[in-house]
């Protein structure tokens, strides 16, 4: 394996005619390259540059060399054997919570990090990759409960030096995007996560530490799982993060290799998938490894700028009531880190115009409302609000559970607003409000989005389905997830979307109809071109 290997592949295809034979012989050669060979070293150095890569390259037959090989062997075994656990969720429970406008309408969950474990309330963001928490702070948001209306205890600050399981991530690590800025390959890796909100970012150092999770299968009792993951030690925040938005950190759930979901799948701990469910009562659930129910509907993720590094889907059209609108086809990012939904301007115009025709009510305005299309009504008039549905390929429909935002006065409904806005970019964003009432599964392995109706309480049986439609591996019950801990009433935080490109490599392959012999030939040739 440490030398060039020359493989000659000879394939002979025999074609028979009426009384003659034609033999066509072809010989193909391909070179296999060991991952730590001199040839690969030259390639990596030329691609990534210079002395830093050379100094980080393991010497042949050294201890580091064999440790890397063994580590790769374990990863391959995990891939072949499948995931160790069917479902995983934070050790404090799968429940997520939102406190409305207090901190941006988003959902958050409690997680435990390090040894001894420290608790953090993190925003759930499917539009970014990194899990970061306030850490050895230079400039962070206040963490005292006195600064927040809904806190019942102080928030935490992480310190790697106080955790016996923490390790610095070096600049030579393949997940260190800023490694080229380091003076030496062994120094701690810096990170900067920039978000779409004006001048909003988190920066610090990458560390590896233990994320405390729990698993449960069927009626079995809960078992605890310690998973090593990459964490951003957020020493300095800026923009809205200094105003108390996301004071305790953000859990990125994107497709990047640095996300905790990628780490769990790579380690063989859980399938490369997760689900989120949001309910009307501002609660919800999150499960790592969830692949959904049998009865769920699906659509494929699409590439953006030539690669799949975000949860992009293609919407074939929009329907208001029974009227399905022409020229409402668009692409959208499915993002739990966006509170409400945005449509491309042209699509937005068609949708709000048809909605206003159907509602047949005089438009109103409400001070502070970010939405343009608002109407006066009472609780008795809510049944007149038309449905809004998104149509996906193969006639898969997604009926929005509640597309409006209700206006209350003295605990009585006095009006509502259509909770969509025009997008400032050329694609839409399906936000948290459109996902409400659904168990939304992000299948990162097959690159599909799945959805099924759910009340988010007992996810082992989706709402409106029969026992036959239960998932093959039912999700844990509330009792199985119970930790016996205290109730946390804590304000959520807002998670933005990072603009840093994902490091994940995802591609669609067009399936061509080829003769069997040629298909096999192309497949083998493609494999031989791969680097070990």
Helix content: 10-25%
Strand content: 25-35%
Low-confidence segments, given as residue ranges, are 1-24, 74-80, 458-532
Span between termini: 9 Å
Q: Biggest sheet, strands in spatial order? A: 5-6-12-7-11-10
Structural class, judged by helices and strands?
alpha+beta
Mean pLDDT over the residues:
79
Taking Cα atoms only, what radius of gyration do you get, to the nearest Å?
Answer: 26 Å
Number of strands: 30
Oligomer status: single chain
Q: Largest sheet, described in full? A: 6 strands, mixed, barrel
How many alpha or pi helices? 8
- What's the shape? globular
What can you tell me about this protein's structure?
The chain is α+β, with helices and mostly antiparallel strands. The chain contains eight helices and 30 strands. The strands form seven sheets. A six-stranded mixed beta barrel has the order 5-6-12-7-11-10. A hairpin with a 4-residue loop joins strand 29 and strand 30. Helix 1 (38-48) packs antiparallel against helix 2 (50-56). The radius of gyration is 26 Å and the shape is globular.
Please provide a brief summary of the model:
The active site is at 125, 335. The protein has helices at residues 38-48, 50-56, 63-81, 260-266, 345-359, 432-435, 478-481, 516-529, and strands at 5-16, 21-32, 88-90, 95-97, 108-113, 118-125, 131-139, 167-168, 190-195, 200-215, 223-238, 250-252, 273-278, 283-288, 297-300, 312-315, 317-320, 323-324, 330-334, 341-343, 363-364, 374-376, 388-392, 396-399, 404-409, 412-418, 420-422, 428-430, 438-443, 448-453. The chain has 532 residues and is of the alpha+beta class.
């Amino acid at each position: 394996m440490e030398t060039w290997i020359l493989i000659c592949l000879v394939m002979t295809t025999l074609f028979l005619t009426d009384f003659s034979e034609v033999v066509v012989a072809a010989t193909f050669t391909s070179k296999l390259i060991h991952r730590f060979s001199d040839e690969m070293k030259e390639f990596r150095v030329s691609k990534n540059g210079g002395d830093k890569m050379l100094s980080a390259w393991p010497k042949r037959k050294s201890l580091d060399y064999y440790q890397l090989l063994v580590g790769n062997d374990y990863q391959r075994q995990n891939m072949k054997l499948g995931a160790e656990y069917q479902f995983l969720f934070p050790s404090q429970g799968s429940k997520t919570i939102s406190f409305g406008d207090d901190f941006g309408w988003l959902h958050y969950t409690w997680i435990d990090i390090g040894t001894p474990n420290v608790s953090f309330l993190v925003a759930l963001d499917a539009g970014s990759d990194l899990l970061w928490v306030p850490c050895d702070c230079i400039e962070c948001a206040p963490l005292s409960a006195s600064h927040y209306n809904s806190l019942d205890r102080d928030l935490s600050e992480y310190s790697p030096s106080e955790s016996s399981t923490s390790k610095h991530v070096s600049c030579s690590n393949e997940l260190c995007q800023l490694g080229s800025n380091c003076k030496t390959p062994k120094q701690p890796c810096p990170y900067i996560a920039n978000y779409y909100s004006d001048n909003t970012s988190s920066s610090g150092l990458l560390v590896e530490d233990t994320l405390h999770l729990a698993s449960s299968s069927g009626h079995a009792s809960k078992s605890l799982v310690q998973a090593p993951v990459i964490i951003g030690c957020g020493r300095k925040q800026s923009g809205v993060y200094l105003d108390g938005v996301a004071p305790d950190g953000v859990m990125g759930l994107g497709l990047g290799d640095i996300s905790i979901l990628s780490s769990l799948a790579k380690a063989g701990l859980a399938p490369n998938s997760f689900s989120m469910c949001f309910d009307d009562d501002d609660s919800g659930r999150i499960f790592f490894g969830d692949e959904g129910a049998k009865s769920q509907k699906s659509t494929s993720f699409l590439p953006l700028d030539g690669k799949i590094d975000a949860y992009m889907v293609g919407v074939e059209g929009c329907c208001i009531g029974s009227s399905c609108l022409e020229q409402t086809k668009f692409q959208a990012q499915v993002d739990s880190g966006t509170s409400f939904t945005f449509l491309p301007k042209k699509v937005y115009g068609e949708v709000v115009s048809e909605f206003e025709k159907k509602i047949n009510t005089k438009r109103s305005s409400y001070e502070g409302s970010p939405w343009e299309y608002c109407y006066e009504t009472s609780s008795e008039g809510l049944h007149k609000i038309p449905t809004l549905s998104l149509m996906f390929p193969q006639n898969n429909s997604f009926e929005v559970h509640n597309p409006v935002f209700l206006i209350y006065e003295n605990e009585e409904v006095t009006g509502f607003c259509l909770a969509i806005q025009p997008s400032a970019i050329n694609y839409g964003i399906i936000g948290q409000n459109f996902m409400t009432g659904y168990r939304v599964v992000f299948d990162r392995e097959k690159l599909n989005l799945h959805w099924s109706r759910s009340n988010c309480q007992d996810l082992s049986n989706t709402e409106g389905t029969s026992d036959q439609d239960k998932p093959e591996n039912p999700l844990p019950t509330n009792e199985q997830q119970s930790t016996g801990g205290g109730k946390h009433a804590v304000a959520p935080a807002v998670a933005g979307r990072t603009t840093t490109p994902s490091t994940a490599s995802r591609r669609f392959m067009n399936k061509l109809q080829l003769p069997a012999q040629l298909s096999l030939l192309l497949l083998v040739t493609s494999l031989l071109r791969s680097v070990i």
